[in-house]
């Protein structure tokens, strides 16, 4: 049985393989596609919809336990690039 995680954007549960892990590194949120980077991680559907929901709800800071300003530009760029290559 595959592990199940909760998306921080839409809050729905999904298999780990269908979600993107994100971690905090020097107050920047980065995508961890291989799910091996150290530190506290959070899970997100790899869609712009779930990303925008997570930003609006300020879920990145809460899930990763980051205080202050959270830079999620790296994750947004990755998702935008992914959308562009799929079109």
SSE topology string: EEEEEHHH
Kindly estimate the percentage of residues that lie in beta strands according to DSSP: 15-25%
Gap between N and C termini: 33 Å
Low-pLDDT windows of residues: none
> How are the strands of the largest sheet arranged?
4-3-5
Query: What is Rg?
Result: 12 Å
Question: What is the compact description of this entry?
Answer:
The protein is 33% helix and 24% strand.
Features:
single chain; 87 residues; alpha+beta; three-stranded antiparallel β-sheet; two-stranded antiparallel ribbon
Describe this structure in words.
The protein has 87 residues and is an alpha+beta fold. Helix content is 33%, strand content 24%. It contains three helices and five strands. It has helices at residues 48-56, 59-64, 73-86, and strands at residues 4-6, 13-15, 20-25, 28-32, 41-44. A three-stranded antiparallel sheet has the order 4-3-5. Strands 1-2 form a two-stranded antiparallel sheet. Strand 3 and strand 4 form a beta hairpin. The radius of gyration is 12 Å and the shape is globular.
Topology, pairings included?
Layout: E1 4-6, E2 13-15, E3 20-25, E4 28-32, E5 41-44, H1 48-56, H2 59-64, H3 73-86
């Amino acid at each position: 049985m595959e592990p199940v995680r909760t998306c921080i954007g839409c809050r729905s549960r999904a298999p780990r393989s269908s979600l993107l892990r994100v971690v905090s590194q020097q107050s920047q949120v980065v995508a961890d596609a291989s799910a091996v980077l150290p530190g506290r991680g959070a899970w997100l559907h790899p869609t712009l919809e779930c990303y925008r929901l997570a930003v609006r709800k300020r879920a990145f800071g809460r899930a990763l336990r980051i205080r202050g300003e959270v830079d999620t530009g790296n994750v947004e760029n990755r998702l935008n690039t992914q959308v562009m290559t799929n079109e």
